[in-house]
Write a structure and sequence with these properties.
single chain, 4-stranded antiparallel sheet, mainly beta, 50% strand, globular, 123 residues
């Protein structure tokens, strides 16, 4: 059974940076595409960034391009999301997700989810 555990969220001022991490366990990490989603109160859960397990292809939502970077360390079974120049609208619960299917950006394409880590950006 795959387990995902996020960490690294917190409170930061606008313009600041945070790095959230997600540790994957239970299966071979290298066979899974990974993604970060976020959900703000009253809003849908949307993809922020995704990274494939092969060729490390990446995808970014338009709202975070140039500010966020997704990466993975297969030796540590960990995926990261480096968030720079944070804005109040980035405030949300950030979820890590894993998929053994084709590389995608829709939540329904992901089989496993973490519990989430809260990111709050003050103005």
């Amino acid at each position: 059974q795959v387990q995902l555990v996020e960490s690294g969220g917190g409170l930061v001022q606008a313009g600041g940076s945070l790095r959230v991490s997600c540790v994957f366990s239970g299966r071979a990490f290298s066979g899974y595409n990974m993604a970060w989603f976020r959900q703000a109160p009253g809003k849908e859960r949307d993809v922020v960034a995704a990274i494939s397990w092969i060729f490390t292809n990446t995808y970014y939502a338009d709202s975070v391009k140039g500010r966020f970077t997704i990466s993975r360390d297969n030796a540590k079974s960990t995926v990261y999301l480096q968030m720079n120049n944070l804005k109040p609208e980035d405030t949300a619960l950030y979820y890590c997700a894993a998929s053994s299917a084709r590389f995608g950006i829709l939540s329904r394409e992901y089989d496993y989810w973490g519990q989430g880590t809260q990111v709050t950006v003050s103005s």
